[in-house]
UniProtKB/TrEMBL annotation:
Keywords for this protein: Cytoplasm, Hydrolase, Protease, Serine protease
InterPro entries: ClpP, ClpP/crotonase-like_dom_sf, ClpP/TepA
Classification via Pfam families: CLP_protease
Lineage, opening ranks: Bacteria, Fusobacteriati, Fusobacteriota, Fusobacteriia, Fusobacteriales
GO terms for MF: ATP-dependent peptidase activity; ATPase binding; serine-type endopeptidase activity
Source organism (scientific name): Cetobacterium ceti
CDD domains in the record: S14_ClpP_1
Highest taxon of the lineage: Bacteria
Name listed for the protein in its UniProt record: ATP-dependent Clp protease proteolytic subunit
Gene3D superfamilies: 2-enoyl-CoA Hydratase, Chain A, domain 1
């Protein structure tokens, strides 16, 4: 792949050099940027006392990255590395070369074990596995500059760990966090993570999904909710078991609350429909309440007096209504006689309103 000059730039101002790595990293021809090109550009900087390296890369070949790491560590200049957006996989090794290692406030660091695609005889595959073990030892040499133990680092690599700037600072991978630069826009669109010019497919990355769930506020998300809604339960369970369990737990809590609200809205005579709405044909408590009101209006059930409490009869309700009318001043309205007689329909409506008041009280309205 031809080198993209926008992705890799070297500049010099007085006694300070600047290197920008906004590309994949690798020594084979299809990679944008390799260790030999880096060596030539580093030599071209000449005698400088400081070098700033700005990184926004999702990684590449670990052998090329370790070579770049070694070149920076061997240089006499003071090295400061920055994560402008993301330093994932092999790119995180280059970040570790800095005497000062600075992450932008919303940037991301990711470390994991070295890997390769291999085929051949069992002997050849065992040799490849041994090579990966040796490669991990070399990678650990760079990561050991962090403030945690080698065993802890090895575990983070085994688990493929994604870190915010705060996470990296806490563990010592970063030496400081830049909170003064403009905040980065981290965007996820159709399961593609976009950090500045770098795009990473995270659709099958379980570890990133866990990281995303924990730090969702960092991201601008497009077309992710729709994709999740279109997934089957089995697909979601397989792809993101943590999210599946969380959704399942939330669903169980909502279901218990739905049943509780229906039971609180129930009155004697609604047992059959309550069972139907709870289990046989699940409906919301609001729908149950409306059905109860219909039954009251139709005279199928009546309000039972509360235990220890005398229920008012219709005459007492009429007196209450007349008293309310008197207090409200309705008698002073022109055309009003001040008299009130309840029709059977009005009485049924009054009963229905009492039912609604009881239901709403139970629901906290």
């Amino acid at each position: 792949m031809p080198n993209n000059k926008k992705a890799f730039m070297v500049t010099k101002e007085q006694n300070k050099g600047q290197i920008r790595i906004y590309s994949d990293i690798g020594d084979t021809y299809w990679w944008e940027y390799g260790s030999d090109e880096f060596r030539r550009e580093l030599e071209a900087l000449g005698d400088v006392s400081e070098i700033d390296v700005y990184i926004n890369s999702d990684g590449g070949e670990v052998s090329a990255a370790t070579a770049i790491y070694s070149q920076l560590r061997a240089h006499k200049a003071k090295i400061t590395t920055y994560v402008d957006g993301i330093a994932a996989s092999a790119a995180s090794l280059i970040f570790m070369a800095g005497d000062k290692r600075i992450m932008r406030e919303a940037s991301i660091l990711m470390i994991h074990n070295p890997g390769l695609s291999a085929y051949g005889t069992s002997k050849q595959l065992r040799a490849a596995a041994d090579f990966l073990d040796k490669l991990k030892e070399a990678v650990l040499t760079a990561y050991n500059r962090a403030d945690i133990t080698e065993d802890e680092i090895s575990k983070l690599m085994d688990e493929e760990t994604w870190m915010t700037a705060a996470d990296a600072l806490e563990r010592g991978f970063a030496t400081e966090v830049d909170t003064f630069s403009p905040k980065l826009d981290l965007e996820i669109d159709n399961n593609v993570l976009m950090v500045k010019d770098t795009k990473i497919d995270v659709s099958k990355n379980k570890q990133f999904n866990t990281f995303y769930m924990k730090n969702a506020k960092m991201f601008k998300t497009k077309n992710m909710k729709e994709n999740e809604e279109n997934m089957t339960q089995e697909e979601l369970k397989s792809r993101n078991p943590e999210m599946y369990l969380k959704i399942k737990e939330e669903g169980a809590i909502e279901e218990r609350q739905r049943i509780k609200e229906i039971e609180e809205a129930g009155i004697p005579g609604t047992e059959v429909i309550m069972k139907k709405f709870k289990y046989e044909e699940p409906k919301t408590a609001e729908m149950f309440s409306k059905e109860v009101l219909k039954m009251v209006k139709a005279g199928e059930i009546s309000i039972e007096p509360q235990e220890g409490k005398k229920q008012k009869n219709d005459m007492e309700n009429l007196k209450d209504a007349q008293m309310d009318a008197k207090k409200s001043g309705v008698q002073n309205i022109p055309g009003s006689t001040g008299k009130s007689e309840l029709t059977p329909e009005e009485k049924a409506k009054m009963r229905a309103e009492r039912i609604a008041a009881k239901i709403n009280k139970n629901r906290g309205y």
